[in-house]
Design a protein that fits this description.
single chain, 197 residues, mainly alpha, 9 helices, elongated, HEAT repeat domain-containing protein, DUF312_ALF, signal
């Protein structure tokens, strides 16, 4: 029995290359090397210098553009080549925006009125150093974190037994509305209008 297994194994070893090479898929000539898959084409690749200038000028009109973005964009508009503009729009803009976002986060963090939630989230963002997360937080997360801190601040005002009935009613209305805008308005403006009114 053992000798027949060895014979079958030896025969399979001898015949395997011949059988494999005779099959259509493997017997065909080797496939030509494929071109490497390139990264997705950028919308800036086909733009001429005038279109590149317009794209860069748009970054200057963006209210989120900070000092670094504006400085680099203006320098490119003054004396940049088409290739420099294209390269900046593809990668440099994102890097400059990330630096501006880091400065914006540090400025918010330095504000003594920044609450616990805002401070904690900024510290996490700065530790992670992820430009996309910073941008997303500045666009949407900041508003939500600030709203939570504002709710706490308004609750502290309501906890003061000496506040006026008008201030208590306005604080309660802001909490009932519960939108970030209503909470912020009450803390920045509304409570002072009542105290002074």
């Amino acid at each position: 029995m053992r000798s027949s297994r060895w014979a079958l194994a030896a025969a399979a070893g001898v015949l395997a290359p011949a059988l494999l090479l005779s099959t259509p898929a493997l017997a065909a000539s080797p496939a030509a090397p494929t071109a490497p898959v390139s990264a997705a084409a950028s919308p800036y690749d086909d733009m001429d210098i005038d279109d590149l200038r317009v794209a860069i000028a748009r970054t200057l009109g963006d209210p989120d553009s900070g000092r670094r973005v504006k400085q680099e964009a203006n320098a490119l508009l003054d004396s940049g080549t088409a290739e420099e503009m294209r390269s900046w729009l593809k990668t440099g803009y994102r890097l400059a925006q990330a630096e501006d976002d880091s400065v914006a986060l540090a400025t918010i963090l330095a504000d003594p009125d920044s609450g616990r939630r805002v401070t904690a989230e900024i510290n996490q963002l700065l530790d992670a150093n992820d430009p996309d997360a910073m941008r997303a937080w500045l666009e949407t997360g900041y508003r939500l974190a600030q709203a939570e801190d504002d709710r706490v601040a308004i609750s502290r005002i309501l906890a003061d037994p000496g506040i006026s009935d008008a201030l208590r009613a306005a604080a309660g209305a802001a909490l009932d509305d519960n939108t970030p805008e209503a909470l912020r308005y009450f803390l920045e403006t509304g409570r002072y209008e009542i105290d002074n009114g």
